[in-house]
Write a structure and sequence with these properties.
By secondary structure, this protein is α+β, with helices and mostly antiparallel strands. It folds into three domains: 154 residues, Beta-Lactamase; 93 residues; 145 residues, Heat Shock Protein 90 (2-Layer Sandwich). It contains nine helices and 14 strands. A five-stranded antiparallel beta sheet has the order 4-3-7-6-5. Strands 9-11-12-14-13 form a five-stranded mixed beta sheet. A hairpin with a 2-residue loop joins strand 11 and strand 12. Helix 1 runs antiparallel to helix 2 and helix 3 runs antiparallel to helix 4. It is rod-shaped and about 165 Å long.
Amino acid sequence: MRRLSLRLRLVVAGAAAVTLTIATASFGLAALFSAHVERRAVAELSVQLDQVLAGIERDGDGKLILSTTPADPRFQRPYGGLYWQISAEGRLMRSRSLWDVEIPLPPDDLKDGAEHIHALPGPANTALLVVERSVTLPARLGAASMRAAVAMDRAELTQARSDFLRDLAPWSAGLAFVLVMAGWGQIAVGLRPLSDIRARIAALRAGRARRLGEELPREPLPLAAEVDALLDARETELARARTRAGDLAHGLKTPLQALLGEAGRLRAAGRPEAAAIEEIASAMRAHVERELARTRVAMKGPQARADVAQVVAGLIRVIRRTETGAARDWVTEIAPGLVLAAEPEDLAEALGALVENAARHARTRVLVRAKPSAEGTRISVIDDGPGIPPDRIATLIERGTRADLLGPGTGLGLAIAHDIAEALGGQLTLHPADPGLEARLTLPAAP
């Protein structure tokens, strides 16, 4: 049951409640119908009893007889379902339908004209509904006391109840179906704000919104407020962490810059250890810059947008001012309107490492290509350099790994680009080119 959705739980519970309610109401209606039918039967039996008593006369011998029998033919047919019985002056008179059976009336003490209703056994193991009355005959008939009873087979009442339930069943089922569907619709409408909350959370993840907001029904509003408060607290903590990381990084960069200055003076003085000091200090500064880049990406704003063409154009302008970049032929193939969900500085940081690496290893030409793909936006930086063996490509993005151990650099450029790509929800992959190497940066497009 824990794995069932909230909607399914409510639908199942509602359907069970509706089914139980309709079933209870149906049996309650059947009980009320049975009581009504029995009251009607008692009223009809009382009328039949009046007819029986109205036919009491004395014959020529002075015996009480029933001169006029009730018109219902069931009184004449053996075990016909309607019966009358009279006990007076020590004699028992009964209808032909009773045949040789006597209705076992209990020894009641009835007042004159009083009626009792009994449930008694009858012919052929049937159950009877009996109306009994004690009557004192008029003076012309001798003022004798007598007990008269009229009975009917209860099977007719049971059959009437069964017929009623059978007729009621399809209507009850139809009503249950309508109520279950109405409940499902009510649940769908009631749970719609949850879908709205899910859409708003998706918008938060995609950067299209900053908070869930207050435009929600009263019930989920406290949840949305708590989520927004959690987001506020998270942003505050991230801002503090970014500040602390920035302070730490800048605190390290200043002594490192001073150390590089001292190494420069040692190199000017002809000291051989200057090169080692400069290399170590440069590596440490690269690590600091990498951590600064990762911290900045972690604080990407929800409305971050970076135009690929503008960022690439700016990088090429800068790289062309360097000695290496000026010696290369730069070609761009960028589809118009490509916008990424990233800060322009972060995209420039990642692409800058790829562009610098391509400029350093290219012979004459570097191609920067960008186009949409199934995963987002694919940006490729392809050089026509010597390339590297395929078995070494996977190790290039590891921290501190370099393809050219004799050239300048710390080997952190590709690792920084890889970290930024992952932080932005994308990936960096390297592929052999003919000739050279292709660095492929795949990032999500802006919503």
